[in-house]
Design a protein that fits this description.
Elements: H1 3-11, E1 34-45, E2 51-64, E3 67-79, E4 88-100, E5 105-117, E6 123-135, H2 143-158, H3 166-184, E7 201-211
Parallel strand pairs: 1-3, 2-4, 3-5, 4-6
Antiparallel strand pairs: 6-7
Helix pairs in contact: 2-3
């Protein structure tokens, strides 16, 4: 567990109730319904390793909670390359969180950061996408919805072998994020906790950073 997150909950007196970190595959919750989860993707390209790509596609089904702190981060760094020998660094993190409850105290942090360090002509892209699905009663993603999310993950992985310019990669990542949003908003994607024809509440946080900027 991220030490900062632990300290944060200790300061506000929540650790006494216990904290559970939820992982892909099913709901996990702490005693007293307090949950913490964090995803982090980092890439570094330099003269010794010109191309760096990594992505994450995490699904956390938290179940019923009273409070949750969810964090998602992507950091891409290119360092020390030249225009004649350019680097390419791409980090993409997709995080899906489902939770249930009335008046949940939610702290959601989502950050993408691209760093060019003395790297002329380099392409550096960091993208963080966070999808928070909220329902009044506990629910789970259906097997069909999980298979469709897995397919989106596979297509995200294929971007690593592409040689698309950074601007095109941004568009591809945004298109995949739009698919995730549309899927999660469908009542049929959930097994319980939502009445027929009632859409779950889906909040999307998107943070893209990188060079070239256009």
């Amino acid at each position: 567990m991220n030490p900062f997150l632990s300290r944060h909950f200790l300061r506000i007196g929540l650790l006494a109730a216990g904290i559970a970190t939820a992982a892909t595959g099913g709901p996990a919750q702490a005693a007293e319904g307090i949950a913490v989860t964090h995803d982090d993707v980092r890439t570094v390209a330099n003269p010794h390793h010109h191309v760096a790509y990594d992505d994450s596609f995490a699904v956390h089904q938290l179940g019923s909670v009273t409070a949750a702190r969810v964090g998602n981060q992507a950091i891409a760094t290119s360092a020390g390359c030249t225009a004649d020998d350019a680097c390419r660094s791409v980090a993409l993190s997709f995080q899906v969180v489902t939770l249930a409850g009335d008046h949940v105290r939610l702290n959601a942090i989502n950050n993408g950061r691209a760093r060019n360090e003395h790297c002329t002509g380099c392409q550096t892209l960091a993208g963080a996408y966070q999808f928070v699905v909220s329902t009044p009663k506990p629910t789970r993603l259906t097997p069909t919805a999980q298979r469709r999310l897995a397919d989106i993950h596979r297509r995200l992985d294929t971007l690593g072998s592409s040689r698309l310019p950074a601007a095109d990669l941004k568009r591809r990542a945004d298109a995949l994020a739009a698919e995730v949003t549309a899927l999660l908003a469908q009542p049929s994607s959930m097994t319980a906790g939502t009445a027929p024809h009632t859409r779950p509440s889906v909040t999307v946080h998107r943070h893209l950073d990188g060079w070239p900027a256009h």
